[in-house]
Write a structure and sequence with these properties.
Largest sheet: 4 strands, mixed
Order of helices and strands: EEEEEEE
Strand order of the largest sheet: 1-7-6-3
Number of strands: 7
């Protein structure tokens, strides 16, 4: 499992790419994302782009820490053909004013 560390500074954006290779087999796999401990609700905070190949989290905060998984399935099947997990570690930022 990969690990990535980011700060919870205001406005921090985290991007995680899901690179895959299917050898030209047919049908082409569908790439999806999930969070292992709760639903990943796509919207302005969680954005899935590049035909599913990238997960973007805008305005990262401490609650975003966790394990995210990209996985590939083929049409009409729920069987996961390949997957990769990344643990997002969010470090708290402290400021003295």
């Amino acid at each position: 499992m990969n690990q990535q560390i980011v700060s919870d500074d205001s406005g921090t954006t985290w991007r995680n790419a899901c690179k895959y290779y299917w050898g030209g087999c047919s049908p082409t796999p569908r790439v999806n994302w999930r969070r292992t401990d709760r639903p990943l609700l796509e919207g302005t905070h969680y954005i899935i782009s590049s035909f599913g190949q990238e997960l973007v989290i805008n305005d990262v905060d401490y609650d975003d820490a966790g394990t995210y998984e990209c996985y590939a399935t083929v049409r009409n099947s729920t069987e996961i053909k390949a997957s990769e997990k990344t643990e997002l570690i969010v470090e708290c930022t402290y400021h003295i004013m």
